Amino acid sequence: MTDERPIGLFDSGVGGLTVLDAVARRLPAEDLLYLGDTARLPYGTKSPETVRRYARRAVSLLLTRGVKALVVACNTASALALDAIVEEAGKVPVVGVVGPGARAALARARGLTGPDAEAPIAVLATEATVASDAYGRAIRSLDPFRTVMNVACPLFVPLAEEGWTENDVARAAARLYLAPVVEAGARVVVLGCTHYPLLSETIAAALPAGTLLVDSAASTAVEVEALLGENARRDGGTGETHLLVTDSSERLRRVAGRFLGREAAALELVDLP
Ligand code: DGL
């Protein structure tokens, strides 16, 4: 039986709109309710305890709005707080971005042959995600001998928000951050943060030609569809998207548009306890 309730998506800010876009493409008939905790952004520089506390509050707000599933679009929250979110969500199913991203990276790495097949998988992420080694744990749980290297790229977040994705500053940051990845010979690189897909061309240019970049948004959307099964709406209609934020400003609207690739719909301001 089709479940008419919306899918809830949560991120620390508006970067997760890249995941919303992927879910909307995969399941166009679904209503989507997105919450960006913009008042508390960034999560990526905060302690696990704080991220877990913030994530619980955000998720409980989405639950009060009656969502049928929860998508944790934020890599940092998925890495540090997925168990807390699952507990908070009770019977509502939860999908984070780390699991689908890890599985997609491993599938790409397994397609490589020769010395490339032995190369480490590189994960680019916030400092908090790197410290948690969540991607490494997820990958090794499927392939215990796979080497994973984590590289924190904190400046990519403000660069993406500023729209500085293809200028000299972005290129210099990418060169510096990615030098150890090039040195290690990684052939598969995970964009383990909502903001990094916006810099994918600059990141690719700082890596040897043919390096495979993995963005978890599309694989997360596939997982959401599988999870919903018969509860997915497939009535051929176009679902509505509703955006909630905990802080709003003209700048935020601009940044949201950058992530969505079009002007953002009205942002509803909400407060979290
Ligand atoms: N959404 C975060 C992530 O994907 C990036 C921004 C932040 O640090 O809050 O890790």
How is the topology of this model organized?
Layout: E1 7-11, H1 17-26, E2 32-36, H2 48-64, E3 69-72, H3 75-89, E4 94-96, H4 98-110, E5 121-125, H5 127-132, H6 134-142, E6 148-152, H7 156-162, H8 168-184, E7 188-191, H9 200-205, E8 212-215, H10 216-228, E9 241-245, H11 250-260, E10 267-269
Parallel strand pairs: 1-2, 1-3, 2-9, 3-4, 5-6, 5-7, 7-8, 9-10
Helix pairs in contact: 1-10, 2-3, 4-6, 4-10
The structure holds D-glutamic acid.
User: Distance between termini?
Assistant: 35 Å
Radius of gyration, in angstroms, nearest whole number: 18 Å
Biggest sheet strand order reads 4-3-1-2-9-10
Class by helix and strand content? Answer: alpha/beta
| C-alpha geometry | globular
Bound molecules: D-glutamic acid
Question: In terms of per-residue confidence, which ranges show pLDDT below 50 for 5 or more consecutive residues?
Answer: none
**Number of discrete helical segments:** 11
> What percentage of the residues does DSSP assign to strands (E)?
15-25%
Give the beta-strand count. Answer: 10
Describe this structure in words.
This protein is of the alpha/beta class. It is 45% helix and 16% strand. It has helices spanning 17-26, 48-64, 75-89, 98-110, 127-132, 134-142, 156-162, 168-184, 200-205, 216-228, 250-260, and strands at residues 7-11, 32-36, 69-72, 94-96, 121-125, 148-152, 188-191, 212-215, 241-245, 267-269. The strands form two sheets. A six-stranded parallel beta sheet has the order 4-3-1-2-9-10, sandwiched between helices. Helix 1 (17-26) links the parallel strand 1 and strand 2. Helix 1 (17-26) packs across helix 10 (216-228) and helix 4 (98-110) packs across helix 6 (134-142). The longest helix is centred in the first third of the chain and has 17 residues, at 48-64. It is globular. The structure holds D-glutamic acid.
